[in-house]
Design brief:
Helices cover about 20% and strands about 30% of the residues. By secondary structure, it is an alpha+beta fold. The chain has a domain of about 70 residues: Beta Barrel (Thrombin, subunit H). A hairpin with a 2-residue loop joins strand 3 and strand 4.
Length: about 150
């Protein structure tokens, strides 16, 4: 009572399905490649200009050049962290920073307590996750003091 399938009936159907899928894929690829360049025209018609992207990256001004004030919220890019450990005998501190504001090695940072500058630290490393060690160059430090540029 085995079930048999008529190979003559399945073969042409399978071939038609394969041909249809292949033609759809080829047409999708060709349509995707026909996108006009930015600022170009759609389908060669000069009266229909292609739409501009919704978001564009602003030009980065050169360092030291004046830039006009732009409305909106800007992220504070200055390095700012907290002292999480102090070794006064060996004059080094361990500081914790947000991930996006890690200081560079050999960078000098100021130590503040109650908005008063009380010391200076040189970032020496090593770093682990968001913490980094530094040598006290001047002044002192305590747990919780702010470290910033």
């Amino acid at each position: 009572m085995g079930m048999t399938v008529d190979s003559a009936r399945v073969g042409p159907f399978t071939a038609r399905v394969r041909l249809s899928v292949a033609s759809l894929l080829i047409s999708a690829v060709l349509c995707g490649c026909a996108a006009p360049p930015p600022g170009g025209t759609v389908s060669g018609n000069p009266s229909r200009v292609s739409p501009r992207p919704a978001f564009s990256t602003p030009a980065v001004p050169e360092r030291g050049s004046a830039t006009p004030a732009e409305p909106g919220v800007r992220m504070d890019r200055r390095v700012s962290g907290r002292v999480v450990s102090v070794n006064p005998a060996l004059r080094f501190v361990v500081m914790d920073f947000p991930v996006w504001q890690m200081p560079a090695l050999d960078q000098r940072l100021n130590i503040y307590r109650n908005e008063q500058k009380i010391g200076e630290v040189k970032v020496t490393g090593p770093t682990r996750d968001t913490t980094v060690a530094g040598d006290l160059v001047a002044g002192e430090a305590r747990l919780g003091d702010e470290v910033r540029e």
